[in-house]
Design brief:
The complex is a heterodimer of chains A (285) and B (319). Chain A has ten helices and no strands. Chain A has 285 residues and is an all-alpha fold. Chain A starts with a helix and ends with a helix. The model of chain A has no long low-confidence stretch (mean pLDDT 90). By secondary structure, chain B is mainly alpha-helical. Chain B has one domain: MetI-like (MetI-like fold, Orthogonal Bundle). Chain B has 13 helices and two strands; from the N terminus they run H-E-E-H-H-H-H-H-H-H-H-H-H-H-H. In chain B, helix 1 crosses helix 12 and helix 11 runs antiparallel to helix 12. Chain B is globular and about 70 Å long. Chain B starts with 7 loop residues before the first helix and ends in a 10-residue tail after the last helix. The chains are: A mainly alpha (285), B mainly alpha (319). At the A-B interface, helix 1, helix 3, helix 4, helix 5 and helix 6 of A face helix 1, helix 2, helix 3, helix 4 and helix 6 of B.
Chain lengths: 285, 319
Amino acid sequence: MKFRDRWRRVVSILMMTVCFLSVVIALVPLAFILFFVVTRGIGAIDLDFFTQTPKPHGEVGGGMANAMLGTLIVTGLGGLFAVPVGILAGIYVAENNRSRFASLVRFSADTLNGVPSIVVGLFVYALVVLPMKQFTALAGGVALGVMMIPIVMRTTEELLRLVPSSLREGALALGATRGRATFSVVVPSALPGILTGVMLALARIAGETAPLLFTALNNHYWSTSLVQPIATLTVQVYTYATAPYEDLHRQAWAGALVLVALVLGCSILARLATRRLERMHVGGH
Amino acid sequence: MARPKTSAGDWLFQKGTGFFALVIVLIAAAIAVILWQRSLPSIEKFGLGFWSTDHWDPVAGNFGARPFIWGTLYSSLLALLMAGPLALGIAVFLSELCPHRLRQPLVFLTELLAAIPSIVYGLWGIFVLVPAIRSFESSLPDVIRATPFFHGPPLGVGMFAAAVVLAIMVVPFSSAVAREVLKAVPAAQREGAYALGATRWEATKVALYYTRVGIVGAIMLGLGRALGETMAVTMVIGNTPQVSLSLMAPQYTMAAVMANEFPEATSTLHISALVEIGLVLFVVTLGVNALSRLLIWSMTRRRAEPVIVAPLVPEEKTA
C-alpha cells in the first residue's frame, strides 16, 4: 500500500500545481494587456491628445479632447439617471426584503444586469433615438443609465443589509418612523460604501462601447449639446482601431491607456476606501 | 416582529421608494416588449426560416441568421472549454491553497481582468493577439492543417482569436462565483475528508463534488457573459457569415452583426431582422443567466443553515 500512498501524494501535489498554474495563466494576459497599453499608449500621448479635436482622416495629429469631454457628459448623464433610481430602489428592496414585489424587482435587476450591452443599445435606439429622429448624447446617457441601475441597486441593497439592526432598532425605540429611521440613521451609515459602489459603477460604464454605437454615435467636433451626436473615448478608440491609418492606431492606444488608467484608478481608490470602511466597522463593534 | 409605528410619512416613504423599484421592473419588461414589437416585420416575413437559412443579403432583402447563431454558440463554447477549467483552478487555488497574504492581492488582480473595458481587449486583440495567432497558425504542420478544425488560410482573425479573447474575459466572472460557491462547503466536509487521511487534492475533490451544482452555475454565468460580448469579438472574429468548424476561419456572431450593421441599416426589414437577432440574444442570455443564478443560489443558500444553529453556541461574554 505504500506505493499507493506515495502516488496519492504525488497526484495531490501535481493537481495543486495545476491550480497554481491556472492563476498564472490567467494573469499572463493581464500583464500583457497592461504592458502593451502602457508602452504603446505612453508614446502616443502628448498635449495635443488632451487639447485637440480629431484631424480629417489621413492627416497626422489631432487629439481626443472632445471625446473625453463626451465620455464625461454621457457617463455623467448615465449616473444622473441611475443613481437616484438605483439607490431608492435598493432601499426599497432592503426594507421589504421578503415581499414578493421585492423578489420581482431583484429578478428584474439581475435580468438587466445580464442583458448584453449591445441589446441595451438596441432598446434605447428604439426608445429614444427613433422618436427623436436623431442620435443624441441624451440617448447615450440613457443607455449607460440602464446598464448602471442594477449595479447601483444591488450595491445599495447589500450595504444596507450590513448595517447592524441595532442601529435601526435604536432609532425606532426613540420614536422615529420607519422612513425617518432609514433615511437619517441606516442610510447615512451605509453611505460611504454606497458612494464607493457608485464610483465603481461609473468607471465601469465609462468603459462601455457597444451601447453607445447607435445611441450617442460619434462626432468629429466639439459638442456639449445633449440633442446632438457626441464623441466618446470608447467609440473613438473603436473607430480609430478599425481605421486604416497608422496615426489613428497610435491614438487608439493612447485612448485605451486613458480608459485603463481611469478604470484602474477607480478600482484602487474604491479598494482603499472599502478597506478603511471595513476597519471602521470592525472597530465600531 | 412588532410592527413599527406608521404614519403618512411612512406611507410616502414606502410608495416613493417602491416607485423607483417599479421603474426597474418596467425597464426590464420594456426591453422585452420593444424588441418584440420591432422584430415583428422580420418574424412575420421569415418565420422560423430566419434561423435555419444562411443567406444574409441586406440589399436583396434576404435574411437568414444561421451563421450568426453558429458563430455565437461556437465561440462561446470554445471560450468555455478554455475558461472553465482555468476558472475552476483559480477558484480552488484562491480558496483552498493560497497563503493568506497573497489572497487579497491575487483576488484583486483577477478582478481587474473583469474591469478592463471590452474595447481595450479588442484593441489588444487586433494589434497583438491576432498577429501572434497568425504566425502560430502558419507554423502549424500540414497534418494538422488538413483536419477540419484547422482548415483554411492562416489569417489570424477568426474563430480562434475570438475564443481566446472571450476566454480571458470570462475567467474572472466564473472564478469569482466558483470561489463564492466553494466557501459554502461546510468545514465539517473538509475536516471529515482530512480525518479519513485524504490528501489535499482528495479533500478538494470532496469539496468540488459537494458544490458541483454551483460550479456548473458559475461556468454558466460565464457562458451568459460570452454570448453577449460584443466589441472584443467584433474586432477579432473577421466578420464573415459562414458556418465552419475551422478555428482559423473568419466567422460572425449575433452581437457583432448588430454592432456592424445597425448604424447603417436603413430598410425596415433589415433593422427588424437585426432587432430579432437582439431579441433572441436577450431571451437566450436571460435563460442562461436565470438558470445559472438558480444553480448558484441553491448552493450558497445552504451556507445560511448553520446560522440557525448558531444561537446554541454560548455567546462570548464580556466582563
